[in-house]
Design brief:
The chain has about 325 residues and is of the alpha/beta class. The chain has helices spanning about 15-20, 25-40, 55-65, 95-105, 125-140, 150-165, 190-195, 225-230, 240-255, 260-270, 285-290, 300-310, 315-320; strands spanning about 5-10, 45, 75-80, 110-115, 140-150, 170-175, 200, 275-280. The protein has a single domain (about 5-320), classed as TIM Barrel (Alpha-Beta Barrel). Helix 2 crosses helix 3 (about 55-65), helix 5 crosses helix 6 (about 150-165) and helix 9 (about 240-255) runs antiparallel to helix 12 (about 300-310).
């Protein structure tokens, strides 16, 4: 059981240019943010070994130190390169065990609640990956395993291997999903419904585009992280973004809520979504995000947002949606 919102600690540390654009909270600021989260029922905190070269894990661990460990849940990840050696990357037994041990040390804990593979490793046999993760679960160092950024066949193959040998299986999939990024719905969402895999949504505001500060005819604000990070994230036509923002502005007038609160609330009502990961540079941003829960958009408002954000589907999905009688897409 996880809360509707999860706090993303990518804003902790900020020790390199990429992550500094997200945020650079030190231990003192991070502790304040953690306490606000806990006061509002958010006890799941997500990070990764590569966030600020491990500093995010260190700051998060220090910020959680004053709390009862059993009252909080920690999610972290491995797979991306962390070191210069040939084995310092991927999901091999060597790298996963090494990464897990180092994450535990940086976090100052003896177990990780949710351990993700940050990306798919096509160079390592699935049997090796899953047997290693199962060993980490059996040892008590990891409670549950999950993956991130997998394609449909990546995830299904992994689930099949786990089932074949009776190993721990992925219970979560950390995915990019937002009102301006709905490709998750085409294959990964039906798979998740069929296999019982919960979605942990990252970048729910479309890589910083649904903050309410970006609108038609206006330049991107100077403080926006898009100036430094846009090239690394999802791309989209400007007109598509403005169409979605126009619909969000209409909903904001109807509900009295902010654009990001509406965008987050829309996600919380989508099938398979278990938790939405929100970040915050400071207390003010965090409290704004907290306003996305405890209320619901109407069916009509959801429909308007669905229509405004709908994307042309690629093959075979444009063909599959025509066979609604026997192959309905999630609604």
């Amino acid at each position: 059981m996880v809360p509707e919102l999860c706090f993303g600690a990518g804003t902790f540390g900020g020790t390199n240019e990429f992550f500094k654009a997200w945020g650079d909270a030190d231990v003192e600021e991070a502790t304040k943010i953690v306490d606000i989260c806990m006061e509002n029922g958010i006890n799941l905190f997500d990070t990764a070994d590569i966030y600020s070269d491990g500093t995010s894990e260190e700051v998060l661990g220090a910020a959680l130190k004053h709390l009862n460990r059993d009252d909080v849940m920690i999610s972290t990840k491995a797979t991306f390169r962390f070191g210069k050696g040939p084995n310092d990357v991927g999901s091999s037994r060597y790298h996963l065990i090494q990464s897990c041990e180092r994450s535990l040390k940086r976090l100052g804990t003896d177990y990780i609640d949710i351990y993700h593979l940050h990306a798919f490793d096509a160079m390592t046999p699935a049997d090796e990956v899953l047997s290693t993760l199962d060993n980490l679960v059996q040892s008590g160092k990891v409670r549950y395993i999950a993956c991130s950024n997998f394609s449909g066949w990546h995830l299904m193959k992994a689930l099949s291997v786990s089932e074949r040998y009776g190993w721990a299986k992925y219970i979560g999939h950390q995915v990019y999903y937002s009102l301006v990024g709905r490709e998750y719905e085409w294959e990964l969402m039906p798979l998740a419904l069929d296999q019982g895999v919960g979605a942990l949504v990252w970048s729910p505001l479309g890589w910083g585009r649904l903050t309410g500060k970006i609108r038609r005819g206006q330049p991107i604000p100077e403080q926006s992280r898009l100036h430094k990070t846009a090239q690394y994230g999802p791309q989209m036509p400007d007109e598509y973004l403005y169409k979605v923002v126009d619909a969000l502005d209409e909903m904001a007038k109807e509900t009295g809520k902010t654009v990001p609160q509406i965008a987050l609330n829309w996600l919380l009502r989508r099938p398979t979504v278990a938790t939405v990961i929100v970040g915050a540079r400071n207390e003010e941003q965090l409290r704004q995000n907290l306003g996305s829960v405890g209320w619901e958009l109407t069916r009509e408002q959801m429909a308007k947002l669905d229509e405004a954000s709908d994307l042309p589907k690629t093959y075979p999905y444009w063909h599959q949606v025509q066979f609604k009688e026997r192959n309905p897409f999630p609604v």
